[in-house]
C-alpha cells in the first residue's frame, strides 16, 4: 500500500513538473525580445532634421517635375482647415493637382492635398503670383514643407524643402511699428542721392526697417545698401528672377512681353507682407521714389494712431499718389548743395511743384496695411483681406512721388507749391551727409 501510494505521488509530481516546464517554455517563446517592444512611427528617420533634408537656401526654388517656382512658406491658420501658406510663381496654363508633405521634427508626414490659388492680378503674363494652402497632419511639429506631384512615397534626398516661417517659438522678436517694402531693384538702378534721402526721410518719420528685393543695381547704390544693411535698417533680399524667367520691365503683357509682371513685383510684395506679419504692426507698400508723407502729423506713428482710433476695423489704408515732376526746380537754389553734385541721382529737396491728379481717369494709390489682416495684395490695392478699406484724405497724408511728369502738358503755373519736405531739412541734410560719407560717396572736404 505504501509503495503504491509513493509511486502514485511521484507520478503526480512528474506530471506537475512537466506542466510547469511547458508553461514557461510557451510563455518565453511567445514574448518578443525586449529590444523590439515599441510602436513604430511611420517613415521615421534617424538623423536630425537639418542633416536629413536638403533645405533650400535660395529665394526662388524650382519645383521638381513642374514649370513652377516656390518662394517661401509661412504658418498661416487664418483660413479654416489650413495651416501653412506657400508663396510661389506658377505657370498659369500648367496647374495640376499637388500634394503637401511636411518634415515634422524628425519624421516625414503623410501627404495632404494642396489648394492652389493663382492671384487674380497677373496682367495677362504666363506666370503669376500664386498661393498654395496646406493642412498639416495632427501631431506634426512641422519645420519644413515641400510640394509633390504624386502622393507616392518620396526619396527626400531628391527634394528641396522650404523652412516654415512665422512658427510660434520661444525666441520672440521685438515687434516693430513700421516696415517699408520696396520691390524690385533691377536694370542697374543707381539713383543714390534720392535713395539715401528717402531712406533717411523714412527714419525721421518713424520707420524701423526697409525690406528691398534686389535683382541688380549700380555699384554706388550697392555700396550704399550694404552700409544700411550693416547698420540693420535695410534688409536686402536677393531676387535673381532673371536666372529663372524672362521678367518683364513693365506691367502689361501685350505691351511689354516677358514671362512675369515687372520682375515679380506682386510676388515680392506678398512675400514681404508675410515676412513682416509677426514682426511689424504696419507695412508700407511703395516704390523707392515715393514717400508716404503725413501732412498733419510729425510722424507716421501719431498719424496711424489717429486713423486707427477712428477706423478700428480697417486693414488697408489707401494713400493717394502725387507727382512732383523732376524737370521743374525750386528757383532760389537753396538746397542745390555743391557737395552732392558728384553723387548720382535726384535731389528731392529741389522739387516742390506738385501735379493735381486727373480724377477723370484711374488714379493709383499705394498702401499702409496691417499685415495680420492681409491675405493677398496687388500693387495698388489689397486683393483679399480680413478687414475694411479706407482712403486717407490727401490733407492727412499723400505720396510725394518725384519722377518724370505724368501730366506733361501742365505748365508750371498750373502746379501747386508743396514744401512739405523742407519741414525736415534741418535733420534730413546732415543725416544724408552722414549716410553718404559712411558709404564712401562723400569725402570729408566736400561736406564743408
Automatic annotation (TrEMBL):
One of its GO terms (molecular function) is glycosyltransferase activity. It comes from the Eukaryota. It is a single-pass membrane protein. GO terms for cellular component: cytoplasm; membrane. It is an enzyme of class 2 (transferase). The chain crosses the membrane at residues 12-31. The keyword DNA repair does not apply. Belongs to the glycosyltransferase 92 family. This is Glycosyltransferase family 92 protein.
Amino acid at each position: 500500500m505504501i509503495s503504491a501510494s509513493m509511486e502514485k505521488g511521484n507520478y503526480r509530481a512528474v506530471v506537475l513538473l512537466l506542466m510547469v516546464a511547458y508553461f514557461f517554455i510557451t510563455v518565453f517563446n511567445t514574448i518578443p525580445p525586449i529590444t523590439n517592444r515599441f510602436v513604430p512611427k511611420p517613415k521615421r528617420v534617424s538623423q536630425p532634421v537639418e542633416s536629413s533634408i536638403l533645405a533650400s537656401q535660395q529665394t526662388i526654388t524650382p519645383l521638381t517635375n513642374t514649370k513652377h517656382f516656390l518662394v517661401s512658406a509661412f504658418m498661416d491658420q487664418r483660413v479654416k482647415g489650413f495651416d501653412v501658406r506657400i508663396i510661389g510663381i506658377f505657370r498659369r496654363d500648367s496647374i495640376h493637382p499637388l500634394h503637401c508633405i511636411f518634415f515634422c521634427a524628425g519624421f516625414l508626414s503623410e501627404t495632404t492635398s494642396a489648394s492652389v490659388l493663382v492671384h487674380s492680378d497677373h496682367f495677362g503674363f504666363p506666370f503669376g503670383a500664386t498661393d498654395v494652402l496646406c493642412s498639416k497632419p495632427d501631431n506634426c511639429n512641422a519645420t519644413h514643407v515641400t510640394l509633390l506631384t504624386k502622393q507616392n512615397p518620396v526619396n527626400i534626398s531628391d527634394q528641396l524643402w522650404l523652412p516654415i516661417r512665422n512658427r510660434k517659438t520661444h525666441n520672440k522678436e521685438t515687434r516693430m511699428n513700421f516696415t517699408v517694402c520696396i520691390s524690385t531693384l533691377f536694370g542697374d538702378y543707381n539713383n543714390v542721392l534720392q535713395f539715401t534721402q528717402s531712406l533717411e526721410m523714412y527714419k525721421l518719420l518713424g520707420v524701423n526697417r526697409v525690406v528691398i528685393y534686389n535683382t541688380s543695381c549700380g555699384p554706388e547704390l550697392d555700396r550704399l545698401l550694404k552700409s544700411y544693411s550693416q547698420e540693420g535698417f535695410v534688409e536686402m533680399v536677393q531676387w535673381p528672377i532673371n536666372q529663372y524667367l524672362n521678367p518683364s520691365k513693365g506691367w502689361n503683357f501685350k505691351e511689354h512681353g516677358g514671362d512675369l509682371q515687372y520682375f515679380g513685383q506682386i510676388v515680392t510684395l506678398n512675400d514681404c507682407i508675410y515676412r513682416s506679419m509677426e514682426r511689424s504692426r504696419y507695412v508700407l507698400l511703395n516704390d523707392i521714389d515715393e514717400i508716404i508723407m503725413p501732412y498733419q502729423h510729425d510722424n507716421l506713428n501719431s498719424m496711424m494712431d489717429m486713423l486707427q482710433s477712428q477706423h478700428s476695423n480697417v486693414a488697408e489704408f489707401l494713400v493717394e499718389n502725387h507727382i512732383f515732376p523732376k524737370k521743374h526746380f525750386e528757383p532760389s537754389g537753396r538746397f542745390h548743395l555743391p557737395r552732392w553734385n558728384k553723387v548720382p541721382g535726384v535731389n528731392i529737396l529741389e522739387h516742390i511743384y506738385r501735379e493735381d491728379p486727373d480724377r477723370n481717369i484711374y488714379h493709383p494709390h499705394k498702401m499702409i496695411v496691417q499685415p495680420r489682416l492681409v491675405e493677398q495684395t496687388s500693387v495698388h490695392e489689397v486683393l483679399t483681406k480680413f478687414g475694411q478699406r479706407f482712403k486717407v484724405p490727401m490733407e492727412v497724408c499723400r505720396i510725394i512721388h518725384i519722377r518724370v511728369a505724368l501730366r506733361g502738358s501742365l505748365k508750371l503755373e498750373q502746379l501747386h507749391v508743396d514744401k512739405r519736405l523742407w519741414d525736415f531739412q534741418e535733420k534730413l541734410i546732415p543725416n544724408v551727409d552722414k549716410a553718404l560719407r559712411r558709404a564712401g560717396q562723400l569725402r570729408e572736404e566736400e561736406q564743408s
